[in-house]
């Protein structure tokens, strides 16, 4: 049985961006993560040890958001790689990272990157 687990609108203050000021002053980011997982065993046993651990997923996102990057694509790629290495039963993942009020020269609510990956 396949299921989707989502962690929606996680908020972080981080230092990603191409401009020097962005890496010094920082900005607010929102992250939404969707993971397709095998949930057969967890559904049958009702045992957390048999389920994809949401807290592990959050910790991975948090750790990677704390590492400065110029590009959100780089952050997203690192998160997906770490999820593939550390999450039990993950089949695929989709991550959306949004930089709130990006410095683009006008009023913009957010700029976002969405990246998906299928795991073997």
How many domain modules?
1
Name the strands of the widest sheet in spatial order. Answer: 1-2-3-4
Average per-residue pLDDT, rounded, comes to 95
Percentage of residues in strands: 35-45%
Spell the H/E element sequence. Answer: EHEHHHEE
Q: How would you describe the shape?
A: elongated
Overall description:
With 120 residues, the protein is α+β, with helices and mostly antiparallel strands. The chain has one domain: 2-Layer Sandwich (GTP Cyclohydrolase I, domain 2). Helices cover 32% and strands 38% of the residues. It has 4 helices and 4 strands; from the N terminus they run βαβαααββ. A 4-stranded antiparallel β-sheet has the order 1-2-3-4. It is elongated and about 55 Å long.
Task: List the topology elements.
Blueprint: E1 2-14, H1 20-25, E2 27-38, H2 40-45, H3 54-65, H4 72-86, E3 90-100, E4 110-118
Antiparallel strand pairs: 1-2, 2-3, 3-4
Short description:
This protein has helices spanning 20-25, 40-45, 54-65, 72-86, and strands at residues 2-14, 27-38, 90-100, 110-118.
Question: What are its keywords?
Answer:
single chain, 120 residues, alpha+beta, GTP Cyclohydrolase I, domain 2, four-stranded antiparallel sheet, elongated
């Amino acid at each position: 049985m396949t299921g989707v687990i989502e962690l929606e609108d996680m908020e972080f203050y981080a230092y990603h961006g191409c401009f020097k000021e962005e890496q010094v002053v920082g900005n607010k980011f929102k992250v939404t993560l969707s993971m397709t997982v095998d949930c057969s065993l967890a559904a049958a046993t009702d045992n957390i040890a048999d389920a994809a651990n949401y807290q592990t997923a959050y910790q991975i996102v948090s750790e990677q958001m704390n590492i400065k990057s110029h590009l959100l694509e780089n952050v997203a790629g690192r998160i997906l790689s770490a999820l593939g290495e550390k999450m039990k039963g993950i089949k695929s993942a989709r991550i959306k990272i949004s930089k709130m009020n990006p410095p683009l020269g006008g009023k913009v609510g957010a700029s976002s990157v969405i990246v998906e990956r299928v795991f073997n």
